[in-house]
Specification:
two-stranded antiparallel sheet; 29% strand; alpha/beta; 9 strands; five-stranded parallel beta sheet
Length: 191
C-alpha cells in the first residue's frame, strides 16, 4: 500500500532494537483518513463473508473499528490483556509475549463473542515475532470459529513472525513489510 509506505517513510522513527515508531499516525495519535484507506484495502484483500473482526487491545482497536465499516459494520471484538470484574461467563484464553514490552501475559475473550458460526478476520497494527497474532489465532481456534485470515498494517519482514504464521497455512496480508533498516533508512519488501 503505497500511501502507507510513504507515510511510514515521512513520519516513522527507527529506534534501537528494530523498533519502528509510528505513533504520530497509527497507534497513539491516529490519522483517520489513513485508517479509512487501510480499512478499504483490508476489504479488498479479504472479500469473503466476514462476520466479526478480532483484534487485541489497545493499538488494534482503532484500526479494526474503522475497517469494520467497510465490512458492513460488523462487530469488532478485542482480546483484553488483563482480567477484570466485567469479564464473566466462559472465557477463551491464550498466552502472549509482547515484543515491545518483553512481558508474558494472558489475553481473554468471552466465548459468547466468538461462535462456531463466525468467519473471523484478525486485524492488528504490527507483526514482529508473531506472538500476539498466534494468541489471537488460538482464541479463534478455541471458539470453533472459521479463521478467514489476518490483516496486518505493518509487518517487520526481518523478524520471523510473518513466516511462522504463513507456514501455518494462514491467509496473511500485510499492507507494508519493512525490511531490516540499513543505515537508518526504512526500506520495504516488494509485494
Amino acid at each position: 500500500m503505497k500511501l502507507l509506505e510513504e507515510r511510514i517513510v515521512k513520519d516513522g522513527v527507527l529506534k534501537d532494537g528494530g523498533i519502528l515508531k509510528v505513533d504520530s499516525f497509527l497507534n497513539h495519535q491516529m490519522d483517520i483518513g489513513l485508517l479509512q484507506e487501510i480499512g478499504k484495502e483490508f476489504r479488498r484483500l479479504f472479500p469473503e463473508n466476514i462476520t466479526r473482526i478480532l483484534t487485541i487491545e489497545a493499538s488494534g482497536i482503532g484500526i479494526a473499528t474503522i475497517a469494520a465499516q467497510y465490512f458492513d459494520n460488523i462487530p469488532v471484538v478485542f482480546a483484553k490483556k488483563s482480567m477484570s470484574k466485567n469479564l464473566d461467563g466462559d472465557l477463551l484464553t491464550s498466552k502472549v509475549i509482547s515484543y515491545t514490552k518483553g512481558l508474558e501475559f494472558d489475553i481473554f475473550v468471552e466465548k459468547k463473542f466468538l461462535s462456531p458460526d463466525d468467519n473471523i478476520l484478525i486485524i492488528d497494527d504490527f507483526l514482529a515475532n508473531g506472538q500476539a497474532l498466534n494468541g489471537l489465532i488460538d482464541l479463534v481456534n478455541g471458539s470453533g470459529a472459521n479463521l478467514v485470515g489476518c490483516g496486518i498494517v505493518i509487518e517487520k519482514g526481518f523478524q520471523d513472525g510473518g513466516q511462522i504464521i504463513r507456514d501455518k497455512g494462514v491467509h496473511l496480508e500485510s499492507l507494508a513489510i519493512v525490511e531490516d533498516p540499513k543505515d537508518g533508512k526504512i526500506c520495504f519488501r516488494e509485494q
